[in-house]
Design a protein that fits this description.
The protein has one helix at residues 54-68; strands at 8-18, 23-30, 33-40, 45-49, 77-82. It is α+β, with helices and mostly antiparallel strands. A hairpin with a 2-residue loop joins strand 2 (23-30) and strand 3.
C-alpha cells in the first residue's frame, strides 16, 4: 500500500505587474502562512518576505510563476498545489 504525499493548496493574488520593468508582485497564502513576493522575470529573481517558511514556498511559487506568467493579471486570484504539508 503506497502512502499518499501530503498536498497543500497555495493561493496567489497578483497586486502589481509591469511588463516594462519586467516585474510581477503579489501575495501568496498557504496553510496559515502568508508571504509577499516580487518576481523580476527578466532576471529570474524571486524575492519573498518574510523569511519564515520562505524555503518551503520559493521553489513551487517559482515554478508556478514561470508556467503562468503571461496569464497573470493584477487583481487576479490563482492557486496551485504543493506536494508537501506546510
Amino acid at each position: 500500500m503506497s502512502k499518499r504525499l501530503p498536498v497543500t493548496t497555495a493561493h496567489v493574488r497578483i497586486t502589481h505587474q509591469s511588463w516594462q520593468q519586467g516585474r510581477i508582485e503579489g501575495e501568496v497564502h498557504a496553510n496559515g502562512y502568508e508571504w509577499r513576493f516580487q518576481w523580476r522575470f527578466r532576471h529570474g529573481d524571486l524575492a519573498i518576505e518574510p523569511s519564515l517558511g520562505r524555503a518551503l514556498i520559493k521553489e513551487p511559487l517559482s515554478r508556478f510563476l514561470e508556467r503562468s506568467d503571461y496569464q497573470l493579471e493584477p487583481g487576479g486570484d490563482y492557486s496551485f498545489t504543493i506536494r508537501a504539508e506546510l
